[in-house]
Predict the structure.
Amino acid sequence: MSSFTERVIGAARLDPSIYEEVEHDPGAVGQAVGVVLLSSVAAGIGSMLYMDLGTSLIVGSIAALLGWLIWAFLTWLIGTKLLPEAGTEADMGQLLRTIGFASAPGILRFLGVIPGIGGLIVLACNIWMLAAMVVGVRQALDYTSTWRAVGVCVIGWVILIVLQGAVFAMVGAPGLGG
């Protein structure tokens, strides 16, 4: 069994065997939560170019965490109810563990504080997280088609971006990413 650090690095490397490992390890729930929390705090730190320190840590971190929760729910709904395969199994714990680790690339979002390129780094991390999410969803939902996992993740991601954009527009805040 891999260590926490090995799992985070393997998840970021899009290693399907790591996603299989955490899918079948009920004890990995705490680790998956840890990855999501680290990624969310990193997003809060990375948003400091747009907000003051206190606001970015609190609002940015909470927005990223809520974004992940919404995306996780959308992924479950789309992946198990709208686009399941014949062999799709819908164990919520397995899905949450794998997509929790799919947040591993988001830990680098703290680099969003770098003037000039921070926004691009955050965008790259968000796209990398999308790719990781595809691997996690494919493994957790036992899809034989990577394209189905891509569809599930992209549909959920687009819905999340639209929802976040609407909320941020209502409160007058810039988009913070998921």
